Amino acid sequence: MNKKCLICGKSSLTKLKLKDGYICQSCMKKSGWGRWAFTQTGAFKWAGQHTFKQFEEFTKSGKTSKDAAQEYLKLRNLGIKTAPSSNVSLEDAMAENEVDKINKMDTSDKVKQELIAAKVFDLTFVKKEIKALPEVLDDTEVIKYACSGVLDGHTWLVVCTNKRVIFLNKNMVFGMDQKEIPLSVINAVSYSKQLVSGTVSITNGANVTGIEKINAVAAPIMAKTIREQMAAIKSPAPSQTAVQPTTDIPDEIRKYKQLLDDDIITQEEFDAKKKELLNL
Fold first, then answer.
1. Total number of domains in the chain
2. Residue 130: partners with Cβ closer than 8 Å, 6 or more residues away
3. Assessment of whether the complete model's pTM goes beyond 0.90
4. Do 219 and 199 touch, CB atoms closer than 8 A?
């Protein structure tokens, strides 16, 4: 890697290290990043995960080393060790980081596949509940999203399927607490978001179930998924009008004429059927 500044081409003992090069102290200040001496550790970490092109885009948007430090700390708190590329969303990056963990979980292959397909990434302290999921889901039920959250002071697994919202809490010794809310009885879903966590509130009738301390990125996704599944289950299936076969009128008349010739029907019955077919 070239140790000369990518902006001015000069060497410097104090410099900012990027993925693909360095920026000297003077150019750091000129670019709007700020002084090297006042750069926080998180900002140095952020720089090491980004290229010069990304650095330019970052500083041109008016952001400084303080913003970089905050972004690095936010990703670290969310469990992301490597900054996602610009064309990958934060939730996709988090889900990708979770794939190996899900594949190693002690549960059915069907549950693993559906968790990965739903891009689930927040399964903190709910491994026992994930293991028990195959016993809870019916054959026609599909996991649409899942996360961990705090309910009644305990950590629960929250699962939205195509039929219901399920809450599971496996006890330390034996037994399991289970609650559920059918999608058909839910009136409203909302969420509030803090820095690193969020709360999803589900209203059914006069009851409000609040799941707290959900990952800040997962909370709006869970709320959105529940709304989408509510709409899907409450929307009537499109009516399918039966297609009536086209009647071959001359052929029908010939069949009834044959019945007349065979003395199976009377002349009056034949005439009546003929008028009916001809709309006379």
1. 3
2. 105, 106, 107, 111, 115, 123, 157
3. no
4. yes
